[in-house]
Amino acid sequence: MTETGAAAAAVDVRGLSVSFASVHAVDGLDLRVPAGGAVALVGRNGAGKSTTLRVLGGVLPPSSGTVVVAGVDAVLEPRRAREVVGYCPDVGGLIPRATPWEHLQLAARLRGLDRWEERARELLERFDLAGASDRVTAGFSHGMSRRLSVLLAAFHEPAVLLLDEPFDGVDPLGVEATLEEIRRARMRGAAVLVSTHLLGLAVQACEEAVVLRGGRVVSAAPAADLAGDEGAARYRALLS
Ligand SMILES: Nc1ncnc2c1ncn2[C@@H]1O[C@H](COP(=O)(O)OP(=O)(O)OP(=O)(O)O)[C@@H](O)[C@H]1O
After folding, report:
1. Residue of 20, 66, 67, 202 with fewest CB within 10 Å of its CB?
2. pLDDT tens digits, 76-115
3. Which atom in ligand 1 lies closest to the alpha carbon of residue 90?
4. Radius of gyration of the chain (CA)
5. What terms describe the molecular function in GO for this protein (predicted)?
6. Is 116:108 a contact under the CB 8 Å cutoff?
7. How far apart, in whole angstroms, are the C-alpha atoms of residue 83 and residue 142?
8. What pLDDT digit, counting tens, does each position of 46-57 carry?
């Protein structure tokens, strides 16, 4: 569906720093996600997860560092970077007076997709939003909005899929649809980054977990290391 070949899909971040006045939200971060791989970004509130994803999503310029998504330098070519990325922000991103179908129409037009209707219908079914596809999103519940945001990020089959808190407030069927979308993205060679506070789902969705603290990586290890009670204790120890 996209012009970008799956083989080029990868995330390569080196020395990323983002500051807001005196706040060093991200502080010299290195991060890599191979094509077909999935990495969970975890850490306490304010650790820098969303800021990192905003930079990768092309909506926030970094203070310094290099960010390459699917072979595109996101700092030098932010517009091209936005084309190869599908980004689900942690909040917002939906037009209150537009319906899901209108969001999909707009996304298809902006990205120059043709023959998109069948995939749009299939995604709406899978995310259980077909019955709400003609309702304006202003009246959506939090979980419905989350599901639509994930669906929109994945719609154009991006080479890099960025999901910020995709499971937040989402019911089990919505969680399953999101996990399935992550699996499908990986199968076609996309690199996936998921920020979440839900360790169990991080372990299910990703093979690696990167723990951030104060904008820095304090651990990068197999996600399975964070599984169960032992993993939770290991994680907790990394937080302070
Ligand atoms: N636009 C902004 N202006 C000022 N400070 C900001 C801005 N965006 C983020 N920050 C600060 O940067 C730091 C990292 O925030 P960020 O949202 O990346 O954390 P997070 O790990 O996603 O947290 P959470 O788990 O609560 O979503 C925080 O101290 C936050 O207050």
Report:
1. 20
2. 998 899 999 999 999 988 999 999 999 999 999 999 999 9
3. 27
4. 17
5. ATP binding
6. yes
7. 27
8. 999 999 999 999
Strands (E), the chain: 11-20, 23-33, 38-43, 64-69, 72-73, 85-88, 160-164, 191-195, 208-213, 216-222
Of the candidates 167, 171, 174, 198, the residue with the CA atom closest to the CA atom of residue 124: 174
The residue whose C-alpha atom lies closest to atom 19 belonging to ligand 1 is: 46
**Predicted structure pTM score:** 0.94
Cα separation, 65 vs 203, whole angstroms: 28
pLDDT tens figures, 16-36:
999 999 999 999 999 999 999
50 CB within 6 A, ligand 1:
yes
Dihedral sign of CA atoms 56, 32, 45, 19 in order: negative
Q: Which of 23, 54, 195 for mutating ligand 1's site (highest number of atoms within 8 Å of CB)?
A: 23
Q: Which two tokens stand for residue 179?
A: 């996990």
CA distance 24 to 47: 10
Do 186 and 192 contact (CB within 8 A), yes or no? yes
